[in-house]
Amino acid sequence: MQAYYLTGGIDLGGRKSGSTSLCILKDNQICFFNSETNTDSHDWIFNLTIELKLKYLFLDAPLSLPGVYHNLNAFTNYHFRKADLELSAMSPMFLGGFTASAMELAAQWKRVGLCVHETYPAALVRHMNLNHLYRKTEKAAKLAPQLIQAIKKNVLWKDLNFSFSIRFPPIRSWHEVDAFLCLLSGIRYQTNRALCYGDPAEGLIWI
After folding, report:
1. Weakest-pLDDT range from 44-48, 108-112, 154-158
2. Domains detected in the chain
3. pTM for this structure?
4. Which among 4, 65, 94, 123 would be 20 to 30 A from 86, CA to CA?
């Protein structure tokens, strides 16, 4: 089985907000799973990934803190990691409890043998020059199909032995769009095409 069939893209939301989405590829069909409001979405996503027998997870969430907090030499920034600065990403410190929850989940997954990586959907979209179709203020049903069709035609996917389909209108929110982009970063990683940002000692972001 190709590795990207064992890969999940996750847009992690607040614990009770019902805004966590998982995206996987099954038989060349993109599939989405969404948490429900007022349920513990972090327990839900952990159990679901185990049930689906996934091996590789790519999260749109900080999975480490700036190196200064670990007394690493040459790291002096209390707000941003090297990867955050390179990609103009938000500070893990600003995100506070969300960062802590993501790191806790990643530790749980790693304890049961899953490989967990951080990714950044907005950076992947910029890399594909598709920023104009990535506007979260727009309703997902309006722009998401255009973004996905543009991605399928993008030169980054031309040389891959990889195809996918999505039945429209399946996308109900930008959380699903971001989960889909996380999955694509995972596929790029599995096919040795992903770009890596940051310092391994501090934490990497893959797109």
Report:
1. 154-158
2. 3-206 (3.30.420.10)
3. 0.92
4. 4
